Amino acid sequence: MTLSNGRHLAFPFRIGGDGRTAAPLDDGAQVRDELLQLLLTSPGERLFLPEFGGGVRKLVFEPASEALRGVVKARITNGLSRWLGHRLTVDMIDVTWDDAAATLEVSVKYRPAGSADSRVVKFQRRSN
Questions:
Q1: Which SS3 state, helix, strand or coil, does residue 104 take?
Q2: Full residue range of the structural domain in which residue 62 is found
Q3: Does any domain span residue 113?
Q4: What is the CATH number of the domain that holds 115?
Q5: Which member of 14, 36, 53, 57 has the greatest number of CB atoms within 10 A?
Q6: Is residue 88 situated within a structural domain?
């Protein structure tokens, strides 16, 4: 799959081996980068797009509970449909809380637009 809509920068921003800014290999890598950027950006972090972001990084400061599980799933669902609905199709968003291990795990299964390949991105947070 080739990159659509011109040249893109990789996320996180980095310099490639040739000394130039790195670019994603294909649309699938670009969509994954966009997904990570959305999930890890906190709402209000971008000055000109204050609503942008999934806020997963701020989970470190939230008390882990069943209520948090629902909030995380709703926040991710809303962010993906609003900002990346045209770039990917979400197959599943799973938020699980393991009381014994005090661990919250977020899994997002998606397909880049125009692709039949399913991909999974996982995040995990342990309570202190």
A1: strand
A2: 27-126
A3: yes
A4: 3.10.450.40
A5: 53
A6: yes
CA dihedral 93, 98, 99, 101 (to 10 degrees): -140
Q: What's residue 1's pLDDT?
A: 45
- Four-residue CA torsion sign, 51, 87, 77, 53: negative
Match 């661990």 to its residue by tokens.
103
123: helix, strand or coil: strand
pLDDT of residue 103: 77
Here the tokens at position 54 are 């999934």
Average pLDDT for 17-40: 78
Specify if 51 maps to a domain.
yes
Average per-residue pLDDT for the chain: 80
Whether 77 is covered by a domain: the verdict is yes
Tokens standing for residue 26: 């294909």
Burial of 111 (0-12, 13-18, 19+ CB in 10 A): middle
Total number of domains constituting the chain: 1
Q: Which residue in the block uniquely carries the two structure tokens 């998606």?
A: 110
